[in-house]
Write a structure and sequence with these properties.
Keywords: Methyltransferase, Transferase
Strand order of the largest sheet: 3-2-1-4-5-9-8
Order of helices and strands: HHHEHEEHHEHEHEEHEEH
CATH class of the largest domain: Alpha Beta
Radius of gyration: 18 Å
Strand content: 15-25%
Number of helices: 10
Shape: globular
CATH topology of the largest domain: Rossmann fold
InterPro entries: SAM-dependent_MTases_sf
Protein name: Methyltransferase domain-containing protein
Pfam families: Methyltransf_23
GO molecular function: methyltransferase activity
Structural class: alpha/beta
């Protein structure tokens, strides 16, 4: 994918979230089932007596594309004794909701992560300011599908791994919406409509430059509400898993969860200890 195409797709998504932040946030309130399993694996790997879970030392969290901060609400419930210290990044401040997080230390930064990956100077400088090796949990949920281009998704994985503390964990979700017959049908219709609508608006990217698995999808049937999303398949997951394991000496385990099929998202968890892989298989 050309860089100018990726920049245009990022701009399309930014415009979508700026216009539809409230309606989007209203659908993002409850925790995902996959998060429950992530928390279970952390407990299994770290042990119940880990000082990060008991509150003896801070539990440092980096949430990339934090959205409404609902993951932080879940962490507060899952680890009630933990002293949560959260660094939250997102390009859309209209989404951020700190209600219900009293007592949780949250440092929010408005950073356009995709533009940073694409080399936009100001955003790249801000992204590079995230401290390396500093976080016990590095989370990135519901975002990889918004990063245009496989090479750019690899760069995001690299950056997330750099932020992970030596005994920390990385957890990401990969949306597989084309595996769901209903969502796939909607995606195909919206994609076809978007080709016409965006070309009439003088669209700034060539649909022919999209990669396999790339779609322009709609939102709640609203006219003109389009966003770029990549639907992951087995090949995508395998390549990203191999890349992650190659960048750092980590075990990378996978599982599927969420949605009516309990398989709408594929999760990757990376952890230094070999116990993670064993825990994920138990």
């Amino acid at each position: 994918m050309r860089n100018d195409t990726a920049v245009a797709l990022a701009s399309l998504n930014n415009a979508f979230y700026a216009a539809h932040a409230d309606s989007f946030a209203s659908t993002r309130r409850s925790a995902w089932a996959g998060w429950v399993r992530c928390a279970q694996q952390l407990r299994a790997c770290w042990g119940e007596g880990d000082p990060r879970l008991s509150g003896e030392v801070p539990l440092r969290v980096l949430d990339v594309a934090c959205g409404t901060l609902r993951f932080e609400r879940y962490l507060r419930e899952a680890f009630p004794e933990a002293d949560l210290r959260v660094t939250a990044l997102d390009s859309c401040p209209q989404l951020v909701r700190e209600d219900g997080l009293e007592g949780v230390a949250i440092e929010y930064h408005c950073i356009d992560i995709v533009q940073a990956l694409l080399g936009q100077a100001a955003q790249t400088d801000a992204w590079l300011g995230v401290p390396a090796g500093a976080f016990d949990i590095v989370a990135c949920f519901g975002f990889f599908h918004h990063v245009p281009g496989a090479a750019n998704r690899d760069m995001l994985a690299d950056a997330l791994l750099r932020a992970r503390a030596p005994k920390g964990a990385l957890a990401v979700s990969l949306w597989r919406f084309m595996d769901d017959a209903g969502l796939a049908a909607k995606a195909r219709i919206a994609h076809e409509q978007a080709q016409t609508a965006l070309s009439l608006q003088g669209g700034s990217f060539d649909f022919a430059d999209l990669e396999p698995g790339d779609w322009i999808i709609g939102w709640q049937g609203r006219p003109g509400a389009y966003r770029y999303c990549h639907s992951f398949d087995d090949g995508d997951v395998a390549l990203l898993r191999e890349h992650t394991a190659r960048v750092q000496e980590v075990d990378v385990a996978c599982f599927r969860a969420d949605g009516r099929t309990h398989a709408l998202n594929e999760y990757l968890m990376a952890y230094s200890a070999t116990t993670l892989g064993k825990a994920m298989q138990s």
